[in-house]
What we know:
Elements: H1 11-32, H2 35-51, E1 54-55, H3 57-65, H4 72-87, E2 92-97, E3 100-105, E4 110-116, E5 130-133
Parallel strand pairs: 1-4, 2-5
Antiparallel strand pairs: 2-3, 3-4
Amino acid sequence: MNQINNQFTSIQQVQAQYLSGAENKTKETSAELSFEEVLKAAQDAKLSKESGLRFSKHAAMRLADRNINLTNEQNLRLENGVEKANEKGISESLVLMDSLAFIVNIPNKTVVTAMDQNESESNIFTNIDGAVIV
């Protein structure tokens, strides 16, 4: 083969010069974490994210406006109520806890709104298909 512009004459020369170090790095990286380990970690992270209860922006604003601060025990009771509603096949639930009322989208595990029961003038809750008292 003829050498073009004083460069390499074969692909083997290119591989020898540029890829010899890269091959070793790839082997070292693959020895650190296997695909199975990375996949399991990603799945575990997704499950932990899915298991937690989320608050919509609206619900977070309502909690702040109404000066409602939930304790860890109340958060656990609220999550327990959401799990019970899910077991019964409820999709939009009213969860009553102490003097607080929460509207929760059960499939998304998202609190849509929150209020003190004393603030609700008419005590009428619409667009729910179940209620849980915790």
